[in-house]
Design a protein that fits this description.
about 280 residues, seven-stranded mixed sheet, 17 strands
């Protein structure tokens, strides 16, 4: 089952997506639905099926959830840690160290304010010459770190700013339109093995393919429950928080994003997250 949100009768409400149509869930947004499923101890998919209208409407998805917080995880794929060490020229292997040690890299990505839905523009900072797409599997959390579902994310990052100095990471990661989520979410009970997903990313420029890459989530070095456990240590993130699990697809500098590019991230079980690129601000 695919769940998400739509604009319906002047409000953002949750919906069940099937056969190209959306069945609204009146009086509930996605956060409401997750909270109700926990209170009533009903699987999210079951509750959504019970509450959704029987009549489908041709309405596009908006953000699958408006997250109160978004957190990112880094160095979770070997390709990412190797690339970042090479970019920084770190002899000591700062990123390789994080990859192999128990404690993961976790950083604050922002709130719903910096998030955009599929079809909306992701941003490039005006002070960056190398902003890259970072395709990722994203986890939507319920209360107490429970995994409620999965969606796709683009952790758009100004890599040249982080490369200049690792302390500039927040400026590399957090700015207007720096995070795309969607197009929909799959409840956790409907996706029992998140480590068997084939993810692809393409960047199109002027109608021609500029970049194409793929990774299987079986290459994810850390277990999702481990990332969640570290995220929630002494840090009671609110229900609806989204955690990005890191990227295993590395976009080279020659494919740095430019205004007018179109980035598409695809996982068959979830769908396609497609975003044009524009200058932020």
């Amino acid at each position: 089952m695919h769940l998400g949100q739509i604009k319906h009768e002047g409000a953002v409400v949750a919906a069940v997506f099937e056969s190209g149509m959306a069945r609204p869930i009146p009086a509930h947004n996605m956060l409401d639905l997750i909270k109700r499923s926990e209170v009533q101890v009903i699987p999210l998919a079951t509750l959504a099926a019970q509450l959704a209208t029987r009549h489908g409407e041709s309405l596009p998805p908006v953000l699958p959830i408006h997250p109160p917080e978004v957190w990112g995880c880094g160095c979770t794929y070997e390709t990412s840690s190797s690339f970042r060490d090479a970019e920084h020229g770190t002899r000591e292997g700062m990123y390789a160290y994080v990859y192999r040690e128990a404690r993961p890299e976790i950083f604050f990505k922002g709130t719903a304010r910096v998030c955009v839905a599929s079809g909306k523009a992701i941003g490039i900072r005006p002070d960056s010459q190398f902003t890259a797409a970072e395709p990722e599997l994203a986890v939507i959390l319920g209360s107490r770190g429970r995994v409620a579902g999965y969606t796709l994310a683009n952790d758009v990052s100004a890599w040249d700013i982080e490369r200049e100095n690792a302390l500039y990471l927040p400026q590399s990661k957090v700015y207007d339109s720096c995070c795309a989520l969607g197009p929909v979410m799959v409840p956790a009970e409907e996706l029992p093995d998140p480590y068997a997903l084939e993810m692809t990313c393409t960047i199109m420029r002027g109608g021609k393919e500029l970049f194409s890459g793929s990774v299987n989530t079986s290459k994810l070095h850390r277990r999702i429950e481990t990332l969640v456990e570290y995220l929630t240590r002494a840090n009671r993130v609110p229900t609806g928080t989204v955690m990005l699990t890191g990227t295993g697809i590395i976009v080279p500098r020659e494919a740095a994003l430019a205004p007018g590019d179109v980035v598409t991230i695809r996982v068959a079980e979830i769908g396609e997250l497609t975003n044009p690129v524009a200058m932020a601000g």
